[in-house]
Amino acid sequence: MSNQEVVVLSVGGVRYVTRASTLQQFPESRLARMLNHDDGEFKLVNGEFFVDRDGALFSYIMDFLRTLQVSLPTDFSDYQRLRREAEFYGLHPLADLLSQEHLLKPRLEILEVRFSLQEMQAFFRIFGSCSTTVEALAEQITVFTGQQSGQSWSSPFPSQKTLVPVPLERPSHHDVVFQCGTEYSAGDQFVARYVSIKPDNRKLINGTNVLGLLFHTLLKDGFRLLSARTVASEEKVECYSFERMKSPSGLTVTVNQTPGSSGVAQARRGQMQKGK
């Protein structure tokens, strides 16, 4: 059978259409042998290969054959059943990846925002249980500073003078610190700090506005607000806790070209970090 030929499978009554080359990703699998009519478990009926197995779980088998990656929904729980299906089809690399269930399950992620408002300045510190999330958020936040004449807390727009971006403080891989607002310098001069949070292009100086934009950014990124409390009333330090279910890393196998394999290959185990 040509590896470009279209193949139709009926798995437990659910119909799938794919190319022969997809089913031949792993030559030793039963799906590859099926194409040569070497496996009596698969019956050819009216031009379709029929197999009496779980049709719904087979969608994950097909996704793996097409992408060589295990990507499961956050609410997925049938790891043992899917592994059993993978073993039935002779897809041992997939069964091996599914045995690492702890790497495939979503993890609870906690984020804490501390906000302090002191006269014309606002101070922010963000703690996160996942360092990659904190790093990604730090890349979205830019602080601009510059000398401003007659600038005040309530002024919504920076002056025409050039503002210089300054790096955020990173006390550790799990937190980030920055501030905004104005502080008196000399004469009629103020040192002003503006905050911009991508993809929003505005430069905000008012701490309450920055807090609102930060909340909007986190909620849009899948977090939900758990609680709000005052940590130190004298210093006006407020603490906001967020959580979300973080998608796991996608586990993948790498396929190598080997002599005599006709473009199909052997598999080895690897890991690939997905988006967020």
Walk me through the structure.
It is a single chain. The protein has 276 residues and is of the alpha+beta class. Helix content is 23%, strand content 40%. The strands form 3 sheets. Strands 6, 7, 8, 9, 10, 11, 12, 13 and 14 form a 9-stranded antiparallel sheet that branches. Strands 2-1-4-3 form a 4-stranded mixed sheet. The chain has a 3-stranded antiparallel sheet with strand order 5-15-16, with helices on one face. A hairpin with a 4-residue loop joins strand 13 and strand 14 (237-246). Helix 4 (79-88) runs antiparallel to helix 5 (92-98). It is elongated and about 90 Å long. The model is unreliable at 257-276 (pLDDT under 50).
Gyration radius from CA atoms, angstroms: 28 Å
Q: Distance between the terminal alpha carbons, to the nearest Å?
A: 41 Å
User: What is the structural class?
Assistant: alpha+beta
What is the count of DSSP helices, taking H or I runs of 4+ residues?
A: 8
Report the principal-axis shape.
elongated
**Which segments are poorly predicted (pLDDT under 50) over 5 or more consecutive residues?**
257-276
Q: Would you report the number of β strands?
A: 16
- Helix/strand order: EEHHEEHEHHHEEHEEEEEHEEEE
Report the β-strand fraction as a percent range: 35-45%
Q: Helical proportion?
A: 10-25%
Query: For the residues shown, what is the average pLDDT?
Result: 83
Largest sheet: 9 strands, antiparallel
